[in-house]
Design a protein that fits this description.
Helices cover about 65% and strands about 0% of the residues. By secondary structure, it is mostly helical. The protein starts with a helix and ends with a helix.
Length: about 140
């Protein structure tokens, strides 16, 4: 069932060598979110599932990031972090019953704009990854 839910994301184009890895990283997570959101309990169905049918695609995505200069261990952790962040965001968004519900927030606290919150968090993940790539590049440039 989880594979059926993921079919639209699994059919999305893979990155090509001329793609900017940063833009691709963002769009990959956005595509994942767009796939999970419209399906009732899409995040719950995906959480805890193993990507057995998607391993080749994952390998190709990782190879793209590494070929773009992202250290392999950082690429792995960033993809994992972005995936789990996306699932968590969608899980919270799908659990939100909408404006006017009693979410336990103190008076005056604005209701969360899920799309903006997702983009802000995704940006933080990407910025951290960019910094890691720059640090690795600087360290490589300083080697004798």
């Amino acid at each position: 069932m989880a594979e059926a839910v993921m079919a639209p994301h699994a059919g999305a184009p893979l990155p090509s060598p001329e793609d900017d890895w940063r833009e691709w990283f963002l769009e990959n997570s956005r595509s994942f979110r767009r796939t999970l959101l419209p399906r009732r309990d899409g995040a719950r169905l995906h959480a805890g599932s193993a990507p057995t049918g998607d391993l080749d695609r994952i390998r190709r995505k990782m190879a793209f990031l590494v070929a773009s200069g992202v250290p392999e261990s950082d690429a792995q952790m960033a993809m994992l972090a972005a995936s789990r962040f996306t699932v968590g965001c969608v899980l919270e968004e799908q659990a939100d019953t909408g404006p006017g519900d009693d979410v336990g927030l103190p008076a005056g606290v604005p209701v969360i704009d899920h799309g903006s919150a997702f983009e802000a968090g995704l940006s933080l993940i990407l910025n951290g990854l960019v910094q890691r790539v720059e640090d690795a590049d600087n360290a490589a440039g300083q080697s004798p």
